[in-house]
Amino acid sequence: MSTQVPASDAGKELKLLHYIYGQPNLDEIRGHPQKVIDLIHEFEKNYRFMIIGAEKGKFITKLIDEQKPKTMIELGCYVGYSAILFGDAVRRNGGERYLSLELNPEFAAIANMLVELAGLRDFVRIIVGRSDLSLHKLLTSGEVKEVELLFLDHYKPAYTTDLKICEHFGAIVPGSVLAADNVLYPGNPPYLEYVRSTVEQKREAAKAGPSQVYNTTGIAERAVQSYVEKDDVPTFRFVGNPNLVYESQLCQPEGLRDAVEVTSKIYNVGVVGYGFSAKIFHIPFVKEVPELKLYAVVQRTPKQDDDAEKDHPGVKSFRTTEEMVQDPAIDVVIITTAPDSHFALSKLALEAGKHVVCEKPFTPTTQEADELVAIAKKNNKQLAVFQNRRWDADFVTLSKLVKNGSLGRISEFETHFDRHRPEEPASDSHKWKNKVIPGGSAIYDLGTHLLDQVVHLLGLPARVTGFIGSAREANSSSYEDSFTVLLHYANGTLATAKATVVSPEDEQLRFWVRGDKGSFKKYHLDIQEDQLKAGIMPQDKGYGREPRERYGALTTIKDGKPVKEVVPTVEPPTYTEYYRKLVRALNGEGDLPASGAEAREVIRLIELARESSRTGRTLDVSPIMSALKAVDWIFPVTILMMDVKSLPDFRFFPYPVESKELLPPDDPITLNISSSWTYCGPLLTLESCKLPSSFNTWAESTINGSIMPSLFSFLTYVHDFLTRNNQSHYWLTIRASKGSDEFDIPRWHTDDLFFSPLRPPINHRRESLFSPITNLLKSTWTRPTTNQDLSTPILTSKLQTKHHEHHPALTPTPPTAQIPSTSPTPTNWKLTTTLLGPGTLFIPPATNHLARATQQAAKTAARTAHPNHICVSVRCVGCAMAAESVRERLAVELGAHGTVQASAGECVFFRVGEDEGAVHSEPRSHGDRVFVNVIPGHEADLRALMAKWGMEYPRACKTYQSLEHICHSQQNSSMASSPHGPVTLSHPTTWNFDIDRYVNPFVPAPRWHLIPKPFAYMLGYRERPPKPIGNIVIALWSLVGAFCGVALVASVSKRVPSFEARDATVIVGSFGAAAVIEFGAIDSPFAQPRNAVLSQVIACFFGVGISKLFALDPRAESYTELGGALACALTTAVMILTKTTHPPAGATALLAVTHSQTVALGWFLFPVMLLGVTLMQAAAVVINNIQRRYPLYWWTSHPLSRSRGDVEKAIQKETTSVTSHYEDSLTDVPRRLVVEHGDILVPDGILLSAEEHEVLLKISERL
């Protein structure tokens, strides 16, 4: 619908456009949305505009900041005020587009011009036409599938009808937010009534069918008649979806008579069962979460004192689950009944299209669990299990101690749920917990909590031993009331989960965890259940907080003696956090609080423990897949294991292999050379069993034999895995490596993240360039590689020198060179396999978190040991020593953890990043090895990665390096055709002349090592950059230098006989400006010797030449100022082309034409200036090198040509880089140098000197 203004104000919109476009500073306004908004506010002082205004605009902007919609839709654009204000906010929050609907084409045209001026033309799209027609087209075409944030500010009677259009096409989903303006003034009662009605009220109203006309009840007549034609009616007649429940709130900024109604679709919850579990553990917490609404309860037999409808007025009551799940208004079903009904009821709800939360125990068998997981996956619904004790205060406290390393490597982990109830319960008890039913014993009831906590913290064990039975003397029902389960881990950790009903203790033990650094002991169960039973609700003060007398104790060894200290129990987020996390998962913003896949693992451990107790044997956990292959429900399990949300830090997966390469071969596969092939793009097509032609070329030159059968088996599995996790693009690398002793000592590390939603800002502190020690575990200096993010964080400046990641991070801060992802959930995992040779080594999952902590400690120790180290090149010896030190330390400290390794026919899923990455190392391999690395990513992220490196997307190529390639790259590394792209003769703006391309090959590289150190020092050479000094000291040395430099030039010039004979000036005025630059701004390129000397030669040539030319004309004295301008201009242009820009030279050229005493010198100005610049440079190299460094370079910051012998020596190093065996290295690094704000990308084969490093650092910080 449109906004039409009264006739009295007609034309003001066009006046607004003229007013804004008539601003004298229009260029300063262009591209700045806020400046356009400010001008509209200024113009509005004289006219009444129908815009949302500043106060309500701030409120909607804040709403955008909270919701972060990818697409926002506006109904009613008018002149584009809100489109600019809100469109800019959506873009700032990572959105993709802003759609604004406007009926009036004149207003739309004005809005388009203002949007373009604001710089939002490519982001904001204004659609002209009726709002109902435009909405209908957007929804039916599939361009808009869901409404994320809808702003209604158009024809008031159309608010409700347009909302019903969105409802009709299913675009209003949980998480959708509506913001309606003008609901109080001029008012919109029909809309408020609709969004605030209950489901029953809307269903009753819907019985009358869709309305044929607009409902204008209570809307001001002026608002009804001024917008549309008289008797206008809706184009479409829909009743909407009366089953949707809205949470609606009136938001009225202080001092305004109008308000905004903010409405959101919430999740309706139906609870199956109304017993202890529902009343105590679910309903109180559902009511605590605003996004959840208790909508219905299934209660078979309500009683006078036990009736859900009476306890919760307004809640619907059903007698059967079948009846409840048919209600389309219900979004989430919570199953709280006995465990033997969990499977059937969960299946019923999932197949009815509901999300499900199932009480523990999940199911009595893994077969049932796997089937439910498969059904949830098939129906695209979430399946969670109520493992609420992950949020017990004592467990949260213990988790914190384990993860921060306070206990060290865990040797024993005991978790108890003991009580003293030796008497057998009454036989007539109706409680299922006392009955022998499937899933009804103590290990299913309490063991699910204890085992879930252990697995959640330590991961899955290697073996299980179980002791299950009854501790009571009288046990007529054969109910298994007690259990002890031993979980054996590969690294030696033993976890004991125990519960008994015969434990006459004053204080029952809850946790006793012992490690090599400390022991933690805790008594008493978590307090939340007792508080809930006592009527204390989650919102009550003190809920979840343990009294001091219940705190646990931590014992550590200090000075050889045990020291005991009380550890306060942390204040937990309480069980409410379970449902908060559930809502986030339903909104696609994270993982489930406890998924069905995770609960399935616990049920499997219970089954193994029961079997162990029955047979008296300790059973292996690892052959689960082998056992599952014997039954016909393997497919659901495969689906389960492919869900990355439910996977741990790493896991091995078998994939079907029919390949002789993975068996003892009759004709062994061998490698000719070490090289790799890489592909980045959409998933390859495997049906024809063909790969890109570059792969065939690479394979023929690299491999004797064929890896195709095993490679295609792996890629088929990978494609299935990625497809099931909504990934359709990847970076695939196949690396063939000849044997070496490179990894006889393991290189333990975690891989860095590729993609990140956030990018840390650059830090302009410059205390040190302790750069390359920052990513130490990626490699050692003798084997430089290119890692995932190709970053080498420079510790204090945050500058990223991306030169093969040869120094892994010693700091616990995250990498700063990640590609900012376009997705809120960028990929943080990868898949790998080994087709030939040994598999990758991993630290077992139970101690992976400890290994990460050890790794960080080693990095921190290395940094602390070298606090003043400054890296001066990418081959820094100091960094190399630190790298080897950390590598050797980790090899020793992590050796005690043990290792696990994928077998032939298995691939590895593992996570990356400092926080949850799997600690791993390349294996010891003295034979040939073929390794495959798959990094999934969203298409936009991979495109950005390729673009960052100057590569096309998609791409497939082989990687190699030859002598000619290195020689060519060395000679042309600084010779870009144009800073703006390729040069074309038809586009003069792309023309570029680079004098260094022709001169540098003839300029010898400085041989500082042949010059005595004191002289080299005074010439600016440093083994490491000087320490930073304050500007007071800089000012002092600038004062001394400028005085000495100018005085020296003047004093010597006065004593030169030939100068006196020609009455030469004692000192040319331009030397004053030169002194400022050469002593006060010594880091500037303008101050370097090449610029300081050659610029003056150029200035003398043009200055004297123009002066002589003008002297030929007797009238020249009348326009000498033109001659001076011409000389200065020519000097400037030539300095730019010769890269010798030096501002004082412009003054020299000017003086040579306009200053009579200087003009009189003629060509003798050359020796005068040459002597002066020589003396000034002599003073500069002496004074500036006392506490600073000068010059940064003598000729150029680019690498100079080297002899062929130097290049051949470089080949030995560089070939090692290209053919490195590092699994996480990348290949095909671009042959260009890229400098961005905070980032430097240095291509292979370029060795940075200290001067070059310093210059690039300064450039990057200035961008």
UniProtKB/TrEMBL annotation:
The chain crosses the membrane at residues 1032-1052, 1064-1082, 1094-1112, 1119-1138, 1158-1183. GO terms for biological process: methylation. Residues 400-620 form the Gfo/Idh/MocA-like oxidoreductase C-terminal domain. It comes from the Eukaryota. Residues 799-828 are annotated as: Disordered. Residues 268-385 form the Gfo/Idh/MocA-like oxidoreductase N-terminal domain. InterPro entries: Gfo/Idh/MocA-like_OxRdtase_C, Gfo/Idh/MocA-like_OxRdtase_N, Gfo/Idh/MocA_oxidoreduct, NAD(P)-bd_dom_sf, SAM-dependent_MTases_sf, SAM_O-MeTrfase, TM_HPP. Signal peptide: none annotated. Keywords: Membrane, Methyltransferase, Oxidoreductase, S-adenosyl-L-methionine, Transferase, Transmembrane, Transmembrane helix. It holds the Pfam family GFO_IDH_MocA_C. Residues 818-828 have a biased composition (Polar residues). Residues 1030-1191 form the HPP transmembrane region domain. One of its GO terms (molecular function) is O-methyltransferase activity. Belongs to the class I-like SAM-binding methyltransferase superfamily. Cation-dependent O-methyltransferase family. Belongs to the Gfo/Idh/MocA family. This is O-methyltransferase, family 3. It comes from Penicillium expansum. The lineage of its organism: Eukaryota, Fungi, Dikarya, Ascomycota, Pezizomycotina.
